[in-house]
Amino acid sequence: MRLAIVSDIHGNLEALDTVLADLDRRKPDAIFCLGDFVGYGASPNECIVKLRPRIEAAVMGNHDHAAIGLTALEGFNHEAARAARWTADELTREHHEYLRALPMTLPWRGAVMVHATPSEPEAWHYVLSPAEADFEMKYFEGPLCFIGHSHYPGTFMAHGSRSLYTRQPKLTLDPEGRYLVNVGSVGQPRDGDPRAAYLMWDDQRRELEHVRLAYDIEGAAARIRKAGLPAFLAERLKWGE
Ligand code: ZN
Questions:
Q1: Ligand 1 centroid vs 34 CA: distance in angstroms?
Q2: pLDDT in tens for each of the 241 residues of the chain?
Q3: How far apart are alpha carbons 104 and 62 in whole angstroms?
Q4: What are phi and psi of 86, to 5 degrees?
Q5: Distance 190 CA to ligand 1 centre (A)
Q6: Which of 152, 165, 204, 233 has the fewest beta carbons closer than 10 A?
Q7: How far apart are CA 141 and CA 130, in angstroms?
């Protein structure tokens, strides 16, 4: 099957619309969302309205968790905390309930799906290095775990005691291999490439494709400024950092 995995939309309607239009063309058999529907961006409700009917299932992200009041905001930086409070005020009751019901982790199509890490989903750790990936490899069964959270698309492959890392956009998976795959962020890429990111996965052919799409960054940034959210959150979209 041809599957699509999106993550870290962060209330960015312009980026989400562009990704959904691309998915209209590619017509995957199913779509999964790895969380962070909201937070930072100015269109939290609109993003849930558009994405929810398109996905088969989803897990919770740390910004979803914060927006429904389950996270103490002391751990957030100033801009993220302001955005989380703003998002909490904006969210409709229905969307609050929707986010609240999301699980922390789910098995999907033979893979493990989790926003941050399989070892401790609710601790919201990041997997940024091969050493961190080695540690996380012990905490899931089977060949594949898909994550988001860092907004850095890329793939760690188990390799003896030291995972290998690649940012290759297209990859064919070894049938014997084990992988931890970060699908990147739709609404706030941080790898220096400001284009929206998501992942296509063909589970029969064992192929991964990290898709990047230019979108209306100015439109998303203008919406953030108009909402009175921190200007930094509008600026960083242009840098992709
Ligand atoms: Zn995120």
A1: 9
A2: 999 999 999 999 999 999 999 999 999 999 999 999 999 999 999 999 999 999 999 999 999 999 998 888 877 888 888 899 999 999 999 999 999 999 999 999 999 999 999 999 999 999 999 999 999 999 999 999 999 999 999 999 998 878 899 999 999 999 999 999 999 999 999 999 999 999 999 999 999 999 999 999 999 999 999 999 999 999 999 999 9
A3: 10
A4: -60, -45
A5: 10
A6: 204
A7: 18
User: Mind spelling out the 3-state secondary structure of the chain?
Assistant: CEEEEECCCCCCHHHHHHHHHHHHHHCCCEEEECCCCCCCCCCHHHHHHHHHHHCCEECCCHHHHHHCCCCCHHHCCHHHHHHHHHHHHHCCHHHHHHHHCCCCEEEECCEEEECCCCCCHHHCCCCCCHHHHHHHHCCCCCCEEEECCCCCCEEEECCCCCCEEECCCEEECCCCCCEEEECCCCCCCCCCCCCEEEEEEECCCCEEEEEEECCCHHHHHHHHHHCCCCHHHHHHHHHCC
Strand order in the sheet with 154-157: 105-108, 111-114, 144-147, 179-182, 154-157, 164-166
pTM of the model: 0.97
Q: Is the dihedral of CA 220, 92, 148, 112 positive or negative?
A: negative
C-alpha 176 to ligand 1 mean position (Å) = 31
Near ion ligand 1, which residues have CB within 5 Å?
8, 36
